[in-house]
Amino acid sequence: MGTHCALIDMQKHSVPITEDEVVAYGVTTPLSSDLTTSSPLRTPIADAVSDPATPYVSSSVEYPFYWGGRAVPREIDEAEREFGVDIYDKMATDSRLGAAIRTFKVGALANGLTVLPSHSQVAPGSPASEFATFKKSCEIRDYVNHVLERLARVDRPITDTLWNALDCAYKGHKLAEMTADLIVGGPYDGLMGLASFRTKPRENYALVLDSTTNRFLGVIGKVPGGSIALRTGLVWDAAHIPNMIAAEKLINFTLDDRDGDPRGKSWLRDSYDPWYRKQQVKVEHLKALMRFAGGMISVICPEEDKAVRYQNPVTGKYDTLMNCCVAAASQMSNGRVGGFHAGTQLSVHFPTSSLDAFIAANDMLDREMVTSFLLTARTMIEARYGSRADSETAQDSLDELIAYARSRLCKLLTEKMFYWLVRCSYGVAVADEFCPVASMERASRPDFAANCSAVGSLRSAGWPLTNEQTDYLNTQVLGLPSGVLAAEPNVV
């Protein structure tokens, strides 16, 4: 078989082989001239040729053979399909998970949002054209800053919306809609502004995606005063759907996804198992506390005298002695005083073991939940055994997670909101070159002193730094504001 393949390979590359060579090499497979039509040689398979500009493999699981758009279901995974789309909202009400979510949000938004010009600062002595370019980028930056400041006055600060947008960490995605208006008066009179920028509840829309690439095309939404019908499935011509909203005025915030699906992936999915076990432990812990934490009382009734009528202290009716004793003991369980007949024996039983097992179980489950969301539990839960190095490593992991979320938010704001504003007000050419950049400083506050010493040593050593490197050290390492306009050149 190997010789046969060798012959095919030789033939494929147009290398002739003689009968003498076959004998010399001990080849027993017959030559092609001796083969009959009943056993023909296989011809080489030609290489596949694909158009590099055409997507071929479908990204849709539901409709892999359909060429066009599709409105996808609201559920993002099997947990939401089985337990409802609000399962992660229920999990977020857990004290530990809720605290982890707020810790993540506060860390991501604590330094606020900064709008940087598209071009770096210009050193003195640079050509006049570079100063003009930088000045233009600062003008566009100032326009976007004005839009955001005006938005805070007419609607709400953008950081409030970003706080809600970060719910995408546990909901998979969070959709926000931008509503434009015209600025009246001032230096930006007649340019486009923002009347509102708000996140929307998932119950009010269905995402429409391209079947081939999962590209976000828009949403079918519940429109006040119009259609409130939501549909899922094939979407052939979105222009004929009255409540179809284009993706241009929407921002879909995601931090994680599967194969580019804009519905995203919930970071609480990995926390579901410990969260569910914790719900079971809570019930048993409460039962144990009710039964054993304060001790138990056992009652041994005296012999009942048939000639005596016993009155039940709870009902007030005449009853058996046994029922009267039980009623009196039940009163004592509620913190009241119980009266018993002469000869009754009372015994108090205290728990022989502590409830530490429940405490340990809750601690273990909390650690699992917090670790699956924040990558570490040390930033929220104290370790029984650990070193300072462990705590610093945990803080570094959380800082990197927060830095990733910041970069995602800034990327979406830059490419979706800022570019949209500049393009509508100044045109495509200006937006392509001068669109400002959203920034949330990457610097970690606990490392500020160490970073200052390192940057100071670098500059003291006379290390040559470009403008871009200096701007990076100021904004990303030290967390200082950027965008100071350099002095204009002296034009003779």
What does this structure look like?
With 492 residues, this protein is α+β, with helices and mostly antiparallel strands. Among the domains are: 2-34, no CATH class; 296-349, no CATH class; 441-487, no CATH class. Helices cover 42% and strands 13% of the residues. The strands form 5 sheets. Strands 7-1-5-6-8 form a 5-stranded antiparallel beta sheet, with no helix packed on it. A hairpin with a 6-residue loop joins strand 11 (310-311) and strand 12. Helix 5 (95-109) packs parallel to helix 11.
Give a brief outline of the structure:
This protein has 492 residues and is α+β, with helices and mostly antiparallel strands. The chain is built from 15 helices and 14 strands.
Features:
15 helices; 14 strands; 5-stranded antiparallel beta sheet; 492 residues; alpha+beta; 13% strand; disordered N terminus; 3-stranded antiparallel beta sheet
User: What's the mean pLDDT score?
Assistant: 83
Secondary-structure element string: HHEHHHEHHHEEEEEEEHEEEHEHHHEHH
Count of helical stretches? 15
- With strands numbered from the N-terminus, the spatial order across the biggest sheet is 7-1-5-6-8
SSE inventory with pairings:
Layout: H1 2-12, H2 19-24, E1 69-71, H3 78-83, H4 87-92, H5 95-109, E2 114-116, H6 128-154, H7 158-165, H8 168-171, E3 174-182, E4 192-200, E5 205-210, E6 216-221, E7 233-235, E8 244-246, E9 250-253, H9 272-293, E10 296-300, E11 310-311, E12 318-319, H10 321-333, E13 345-349, H11 356-374, H12 388-426, H13 428-434, E14 437-439, H14 448-460, H15 467-477
Antiparallel strand pairs: 1-5, 1-7, 2-14, 3-4, 3-9, 5-6, 6-8, 10-13, 11-12
Helix pairs in contact: 5-11, 5-12, 9-11, 12-13
